[in-house]
Amino acid sequence: MRADVSLKGVFPILVTPFDEMENVDLESFVRVVRFMAEIGVDGVTILGVLGESNRMVDSEREELIMAAVAAADGRIPVVVGTSHKGTEATRYLSLMAESLGASAVMVTPSKEAVPNEERTFEYFRKVAEGITIPIVLQDHPGSTEVHMSAPLILRMVNEIPRIACIKQEAPPTPAKIAALIGGMKERRVPVLTGLGALYGMFDLECGSDGYMTGFAFPEVLIAMVAAVRARRMEDAWELYRRFLPLIVFEQQPGIAIRKEIYRLRGLLLSNRVRHPGAQLVASAGEQLRSVITRVLPGVDITKPLAL
């Protein structure tokens, strides 16, 4: 994927599997990537915030990128999260991802003691100058504590050609998506929905081009996007209504619930979260299984969902 290729559709953000000793479980990771390719996603994103990227050392990042690219085997693009508090470190991680075969990188801004939009612009510009693959600009103040205004993002789209997509996760997302799409007069790049698809249908109605998020049933998101593209809005809304309990339950803070869904789907051997992340509470696991049974009664979730 080069800079002139748009990132549209569904790009699940993948969990990073660990064994009970908190070592990276590459076998499970490869199984996840292959499963995603088989169900027809448009690409995958690894080493995101909820991929526990901040708990990885560089050698582990390298292993995971190589494993994802090999497992994808050219069938789907691999987007790699490369954000770091320092500009040079982000450039370094982005170059590493590019050299290992990543199709694009996902970058978030870095928090400063005194907010400065000009420095945020320079951060993205400098990172872009160091690579030749596209950048997904992630707007997620929930994790970065950086609030980027719509005018700043639009300026970056216009002046930094390497930015090829916006991952919009700044609530209220529908209004900001509409503002960004309406403001892209000179150059239009895709806008993808995040936040676990929590506001998914509202975002799609406002012009979102798909999803880049971690909901553990991406088949649902694929079907929703297909329905919207075909202007079958009521079908899309029906899917959203049906799966909203699972979307909401999974979107609770942390990553343990999502990892447990992956485990129940037969993709991970363990739902282990790397310390200091919280592990799954037994009562939450029981409630999750109850929600899945209500939403998908009698369905074998280890197989791709037929929707």
CATH architecture: Alpha-Beta Barrel
Number of helices: 12
Query: What percentage of amino acids are in beta strands?
Result: 5-15%
Q: What is the H-and-E element order?
A: EHEHEHEHEHHEHEHEHHHH
pLDDT under 50 segments (min length 5)?
Answer: none
The total count of strands amounts to: 8
| Strand order across the largest sheet | 2-3-4-5-6-7
What number of domains?
Answer: 1
User: Would you tell me which CATH topology applies?
Assistant: TIM Barrel
Oligomer: single chain
**Structural class per helix/strand content?**
alpha/beta
> What is the average of the pLDDT values?
95
Main pleated-sheet profile: 6 strands, parallel
| Radius of gyration (Å) | 18 Å
CATH superfamily heading: Aldolase class I
Distance between the termini: 29 Å
Please report the first level of CATH classification, the CATH class. Answer: Alpha Beta
Reconstruct the topology from this structure.
Elements: E1 9-10, H1 26-39, E2 44-46, H2 58-72, E3 78-81, H3 87-99, E4 104-107, H4 117-129, E5 135-139, H5 141-144, H6 150-159, E6 163-168, H7 173-183, E7 191-193, H8 200-205, E8 210-211, H9 218-229, H10 233-250, H11 256-264, H12 282-295
Parallel strand pairs: 1-8, 2-3, 3-4, 4-5, 5-6, 6-7
Helix pairs in contact: 1-2, 3-4, 6-7, 9-10, 10-12
Describe this structure in words.
This protein has helices spanning 26-39, 58-72, 87-99, 117-129, 141-144, 150-159, 173-183, 200-205, 218-229, 233-250, 256-264, 282-295, and strands at 9-10, 44-46, 78-81, 104-107, 135-139, 163-168, 191-193, 210-211. By secondary structure, the chain is an alpha/beta fold. The chain has a six-stranded parallel β-sheet with strand order 2-3-4-5-6-7. A two-stranded parallel ribbon has the order 1-8. Strand 6, helix 7 and strand 7 (191-193) form a beta-alpha-beta unit. The longest helix is centred in the C-terminal third of the chain and has 18 residues, at 233-250.
